[in-house]
Specification:
Helix content is 33%, strand content 23%. By secondary structure, it is an alpha/beta fold. The strands form 5 sheets. A 7-stranded parallel sheet has the order 4-5-3-14-15-2-16. Strands 1-19-18-21-20-17 form a 6-stranded mixed sheet. The longest helix is centred in the C-terminal third of the chain and has 29 residues. It is flat and about 85 Å long. The model has no long low-confidence stretch (mean pLDDT 84).
Amino acid sequence: MRTQHFMIQNPYSSHPLFGSLCNSLREENHKIQYLDGLAGSSRSALIQACLGNMKGPHLIIFSDKEEAAYFYTDLVTLEGTPDRTLFFPSSYKRSVQYQQTDEANIITRTQTLKRLSERRVASFIITYSEALIESVVSKRQLGELSLDIKEGEKIDMTFLQEVLQTYDFQLVDFVYEPGQYAIRGGIVDVFSYASSHPCRIDFFDDEVDSIRIFDTDTQRSLERVKKVNIISNLQWEHERGEKRITFLDYIPSGTILWMDNPDLISEQVQALYDRTTFEVTEENSPSKELFLIPGTKIGEQIKGFRQVIFGAHLFQDTQKTWHFNTSPQPVFNKNFELLVASIKEQSAAGFKNYILSDSEKQLERLAAIFQEVDPELEYKTCTQTIHEGFKDEDLKIAWFTDHQIFERYHKFRFHDRFSRKESLSAKELMGLNPGDYVVHVDHGIGIFGGLEKIDVNGKLQEAVKLVYKDKDVLYVNIHSLHRITKYKGKDTEPPKIYKLGTGAWQKLKSNTKKKVQDIARELILLYAQRKNQDGFAFSRDTYLQQELESSFIYEDTPDQLKATEDVKEGMEA
C-alpha cells in the first residue's frame, strides 16, 4: 500500500471553467448566474477558489443555519486562515420567535458589523435567512456606540465610567460576561460586545499604561494589545436618532450575493416574521416593526445585487449557466471492500483519490484496515477535512471524508468564539456567600469572607478575603483567582480550618504525596510479580477492531487514547 500525507489544496483554480467564470463575475454583464452540477463540498471549493481570485466583498446566504456553519468551516479550512472570513448569525439560540438570546451570537454579529464598517473589509461574509430578519444599526450609529482606547493616550476615568453607563454597561465586582465593567483603583476591566474576551485597562494617573486581554475564569492575562474597541449591545439599540436598517443595507453596494435559493430565503424570512410576536410589557419594549424585517423587503433587496445561485435551478431569468460534472461521495456503510474497489476503479480511470481527516489517528486506523483488505492500494491523505466528499469528472479527483466513510458525526467549528468554561470562574466566585468553605492551593481550607478593597502600593484594589483559624486573614489578588477552589466534601461534617504559617497544610500535602508514592510502590511490586508469571498474549488488532474504533461517533480525547493504547499494550505483551 502506498500513501502520502498532504495539506489540503483547492484544485478548482485549474478547472476548465474557472477563468471564464471569474471573468464573467468581474464584467458584471450578467445579473444572475447559475452554477449547475455541484455536489457535496465541491461548491465550497469552487466558491473559495473564485473568491480568492477576485477583489471585493462577497455575501454567501443559506436558507439553513447548519449549512451556513458547515460552509464557514469548509471555507476557513480551504483558506487556511479565518482572517478573511466572517460569520453573521442570528442573535438567538433557537429562533427569534422564542426570544432567547445567545451572547456568543450577539458578539459574533457585532464583530462582523464592526469589521464591515472599517476600511479593511473582509472578503467573505456567510449568513442565513434567520439572521437576515433582524435589523441592524447604521454605520453612523455604530460609530456613536463605539469607543476606541489606545495605550499611551490620556483619558479621564470619570469620563470612561460615564461612557460605559451611557452604553448600558453594568458595574460589577468581577466581569464574566459581555456588557459588564469593574473598577479597582487604577484598573478598569471591560467586557465589550466587540470581543470574545474582556480587557483590563491599567491607568497611571489619566494615562493608559497598558491594555491586556484576560481570561474570565482565571482572571489571568492572555495577551497585551495596543488598542481596544468598546461597543455596547447593539441588539435593541434604537434611541439614538437614526432608524435601524437591514443587513443588506449595511454591506457595500458592489457585493456579489451567492445563494442556494433566493426565493426560499425570502419565504423563510417572511414566514418567521409572521410567526413572531413581541410581548409588550413596558414603554420601551421591543417593537416587531422596528427590529424585524419582513421577507418581502429582503426579497426586493436581493434583486438589487448581482447574484450567483448554486442551489436548485428554479429560476426563469437566469442569464448565464455554468455546468459542472461532480457527484457526491458514495455511501459505503463501512463496507471497506466496496471502498477499496471504488478507489481502485477510479485510479484505473485516471483519478487522484484523497482521503481527508483532521485526525492522524483516524488515518492510521484506515491504513491498518487497507493493509488487511488490499496492501497494494494507492491513495493520498490530507490532515484536514471538509464536510462532504465528492468526485469531479473534469478535474479527475475524488475527495473522501473519514466521517462519511465511518458514519461519524462531523462538527462545524467557529474561531475566537465566546464560551463559558466549567472551572471556578469569577461568576461562581460572585455566587459564594460569606461563611462558605474554600481551598487555597498553598494555605489549605479557609472561610470565604467576601470581597474587600485594600491598598496596594497606593492604589485601591479589590481582593478576595479568606479567614483562617484564630481569625487569621489572607487577601488573594484577583490575578491569583486560579489558586482558589470551592471546597467539596461531606455535607454532614464541617472541614478542618487551617492556621496560617504553621505548615500543617504543607505537611498534609506532603503526607498525601508519600501515601501516593507508597501505593505506586505496591503497584510496581504487583506488576513485577505478574510479569514473572506465564500469561496469555492477545493478538494485535485486526482491521475489524480498527473498523469498530473508527466507527465511534466522537473522536477520543488524548487521555482516552493513551489509556486504550496502554491497555492493548498490556494485553498483547
